[in-house]
Fold this protein.
Amino acid sequence: MDHQNNPGSPLDEKMMQYWPLLTREQKETILTIIQSFTRPDGHYHTDKYSEELKQALQRVKAGEYYTHQQIKEILKKIK
């Protein structure tokens, strides 16, 4: 995976197109996600990521998830 910092790349530009459209809460959520995956040295924080995956798998095994069909039904009600 490419960990190089490439400011001004097409991907960075695309991200910045959407950033102003987000609410404060959405921006805080995205920042938290980014911080959970990286360390100050730019490498992925695999210990935290692995723990989050482990917790998510436990929730799935406990039946705490939505199926694709359930999500489709929820979205129909929102529209």
User: Anything to note?
Assistant: The chain has a mean pLDDT of 83.
